[in-house]
Recover the amino acids of this structure.
């Protein structure tokens, strides 16, 4: 447990809720992390959010056209289950909680469920 956690538990909670916060201790086990690691860690948070855009495009297409012909519900059902499994791993199993992995999989799960709903509404 770091001195920040011992001294101020409220600061630790604020860090957990701020998705753009990158804990330098989580990037390097031996001393201070490089600037590259800090920048790349923030980029990965951005990419975690942006990388699920393909699902959003599918949601928009299904609901705007009101047509889900040819879209596999089993594929998106399995994807949603995978997102839950990865989210649990990222938040509860990893010793240092992996925020990009958690964000990406929450987003993937929500969008997959929206696609599945669209499939059942418009097929």
């Amino acid at each position: 447990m770091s001195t920040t956690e011992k001294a101020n538990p409220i600061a630790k909670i604020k860090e957990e809720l701020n998705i753009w916060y990158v804990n330098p201790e989580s990037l390097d086990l031996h001393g201070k992390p490089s600037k590259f690691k800090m920048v790349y860690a923030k980029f990965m948070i951005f990419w975690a959010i942006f990388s699920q855009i393909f699902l959003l495009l599918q949601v928009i297409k299904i609901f705007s056209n009101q047509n889900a012909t040819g879209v596999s519900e089993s594929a998106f059902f399995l994807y949603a289950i995978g997102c839950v499994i990865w989210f649990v791993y990222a938040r509860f199993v990893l010793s240092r909680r992996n925020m990009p992995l958690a964000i990406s999989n929450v987003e993937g799960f929500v969008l997959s469920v929206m696609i599945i709903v669209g499939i059942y509404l418009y097929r």
About this structure: Residues 20 and 42 are 7 Å apart (CA to CA). The mean pLDDT is 83. Residues 3-122 form a domain with the Monooxygenase fold (CATH 1.20.1280.290). The radius of gyration is 18 Å.
